[in-house]
Write a structure and sequence with these properties.
Elements (H helix, E strand, L loop, with lengths): L7 H13 L10 H13 L3 E5 L2 H11 L7 E5 L8 H5 L3 E5 L1 E2 L4 E2 L1 H7 L4 E7 L8 H10 L3 E5 L7 E2 L2 E2 L6 E5 L12 E5 L2 H10 L38 H11 L2 H19 L5 E2 L7 E2 L4 E6 L8 H12 L4 E2 L2 H14 L21 H8 L1 E5 L6 H18 L1
Parallel strand pairs: 2-3, 2-6, 6-7, 7-10
Antiparallel strand pairs: 1-11, 4-5, 8-9, 8-13, 10-11, 12-14, 14-16, 15-16
The structure holds pyridoxal-5'-phosphate (PLP).
């Protein structure tokens, strides 16, 4: 039986918000500050800034670093665009690094290969809920004096060497979007131990108003007019989390252990159904890493098959009647470039300086591995029997096509 995600806990908090008449955080925020405190305890970070989306959290985290326009920030080549857009938002330049082909996680060598004198930071994504190898990454980061952002949007409660993902970097960002481990529909938060990063992230997310009852600087009275200024001390957006989001997020956080256990049961089904299935490799295991899968990554073994993930996914759907997810973003990009080449047009849609680009060939390991990566949902609300059928469809497909 699938687990129900929302219930009385969320409803009762939402009722409280509506009855209070205060739906925004404003001066008397209730649920949002309570969520910040609770998630700070849960993630093990001193300062938390709750915001209205995961992308806003990525923006707040990058803004928190206080980089200069034109600074370069290294991003993995195999992650959603929400990771590199926030780098642009800070006036900085994303540079795409190659990954460990087994996990699609940014590799220390990939980072090293992207270093220039303008490189100031790296965004590490704990992709699919697999913890990144933080020791090796920090070795490179320290050598080149890079700030480290941990993107934990897909990685609640994962551990690297016994320490939670999200507690290693200068700052971490999380998403509370519908598909993530816990959700309030849209939402996110920035978590850090550094008061300066917190302050910048806080101002950025709140239209530059640091006094906004977050325990920071009070607005100064204008010496000429004698009128207190509102205090927009920096550039920023209104990325504040609403009380409605906070009410749901707080109730969800109380259920996270229950959700995580349901996910682990689903992973057991996937792994037992696909044990020894021809042509595939189950998720990479490492004794130092405790994953908490957002989706379960499966890779096609290039020694056994030349099928791509897109092809396998299509066979599953057409022949077994059940689709399996695939990771074809780069494949798709390749198609776009192919089309442009065939039509004799020069590439467009990259309104960037010459040296900022992502083209096929730049990160060969990422491209190859992405084309061989399939995913099965591990969401706590998924019906375990449907997951079993998906895994069985994949097994039958592989047995037939190998
Ligand atoms: C979901 C996600 C984000 C952005 O979160 P939204 O809440 O969807 O804006 C950022 N990074 C990664 C790795 C994600 O999976």
């Amino acid at each position: 039986m699938a687990l129900r995600c929302f219930g009385e806990e969320e409803l009762s908090n939402l009722r409280e918000v509506l009855e209070s008449g205060e739906l925004w955080r404003g001066a008397r925020g209730n649920f949002v500050p309570r969520f910040e405190e609770a998630i700070g305890n849960h993630t093990g970070r001193r300062y938390v800034q709750a915001v209205n989306s995961g992308t806003s959290a990525n923006e707040g985290a990058v803004a928190g670093l206080g980089l200069e326009p034109g600074d370069e920030v290294i991003c993995p080549a195999t992650v959603p665009i929400f990771v590199s857009f926030p780098v642009f938002a800070a006036g900085c330049i994303p540079v795409f690094a190659d990954v460990n082909p087994r996990t699609l996680i940014i590799s220390p060598e990939g980072i090293e290969a992207c270093i220039s004198e303008r490189t100031k930071a790296v965004v590490v994504v704990h992709l699919f809920g697999q913890p990144a190898p933080m020791d090796d990454i920090f070795q490179v980061a320290r050598k080149h004096n890079l700030k480290v952002v941990e993107d934990c949007a897909q990685a609640y409660d994962c551990y690297y060497k016994g320490k939670k993902a999200g507690t290693f970097g200068d700052v971490a960002c999380f998403s509370l979007q519908q598909s993530k481990h816990i959700t309030c529909g849209e939402g996110g938060f920035v978590a850090t131990d550094d008061p300066e990063i917190y302050k910048r992230a806080n101002m950025y997310s709140n239209s530059g108003m640091p006094w906004f009852l977050y325990g920071l600087e009070a607005p100064k009275t204008n010496p000429v007019s004698k009128i207190p200024t509102r205090g927009h001390f920096s550039f920023g957006h209104d990325h504040r989390m609403s009380e409605i989001q906070g009410a749901v997020a707080l109730a969800q956080l109380a259920k996270i252990d229950q959700f995580n256990s349901a996910r682990k049961e689903i992973v057991k089904i996937i792994e037992s159904e696909l044990q020894d299935c021809p042509g595939i490799m189950l998720a990479h295991k490492h004794p130092d890493h405790v994953p908490n899968y957002w989706v379960y990554p499966i890779q096609l073994n290039p020694d056994e098959t030349s099928l791509t993930a897109v092809e396998v996914s299509r066979f599953c759907r057409e022949e077994q009647g059940i689709g399996v997810g695939c990771y074809g973003e780069i494949n798709y990009l390749e198609q776009i470039y192919q089309d442009m080449e065939n039509s004799g047009k020069t590439p467009f849609g990259l309104p960037l300086p010459e040296y900022v680009h992502y083209r096929p060939g730049l990160c060969p390991k990422a491209e190859d591995a992405a084309m061989r990566t399939l995913t099965i949902v591990t969401h706590h609300s998924a019906d375990p029997e449907n997951i079993r059928k998906q895994a069985q469809a994949l097994r039958k497909t592989m047995e037939k096509h190998i």
